[in-house]
């Protein structure tokens, strides 16, 4: 009985040792490949055209940061013909008026920006994003939360 038990333990030990050997060999092989190609850089081909981007700004009662966010996104360094901003405003306080004024100011500067309001706040933030997505024209969608101020080169990176 004990002989069968020890043979089973030895079998399990050899099986686990074999698995560890295969794992270690694979790890070493992958490390060797990475080391050989450590100076090889794969660069993306140059863009033939700039993709259209829609920036969505979901805000809800962001009284103190809404204007700062809208102004920062309007300063993004990106071609104006391939760039639109959607301010998705579900606010119930003075943020509505602050956002409206900021949107009008940026629109006067020639920025493609719209202030999107919903009658009912169905789905909360996800609902606002889905509502805005229905009218978005961008190939790519960038969503910035109210507490994030993007650097001017964010979209180009």
Write a brief caption for the model.
The mean pLDDT is 91.
Describe this structure in words.
With 157 residues, this protein is α/β, with parallel strands linked by helices. The chain contains four helices and four strands, in the order H-E-H-E-H-E-H-E. It has two domains: 42 residues; 91 residues, Spore Coat Polysaccharide Biosynthesis Protein SpsA, Chain A. The chain has a four-stranded parallel beta sheet, with helices on both faces. Helix 3 links the parallel strand 2 and strand 3. The longest helix has 35 residues. The mean pLDDT is 91.
State the helical fraction.
Answer: 40-55%
Order of helices and strands: HEHEHEHE
Mean pLDDT: 91
At CATH level 3, the topology of the largest domain is Spore Coat Polysaccharide Biosynthesis Protein SpsA, Chain A
CATH architecture term of the largest domain: Alpha-Beta Complex
Low-pLDDT runs: none
Strand arrangement within the widest β-sheet reads 3-2-1-4
Per DSSP E runs of 2 or more residues, the count of β-strands stands at 4
| CATH C-level class of the largest domain | Alpha Beta
CATH homologous superfamily assignment of the largest domain? Spore Coat Polysaccharide Biosynthesis Protein SpsA, Chain A
Structural class: alpha/beta
Key terms:
alpha/beta, single chain, 15% strand, 157 residues, Spore Coat Polysaccharide Biosynthesis Protein SpsA, Chain A, four-stranded parallel beta sheet
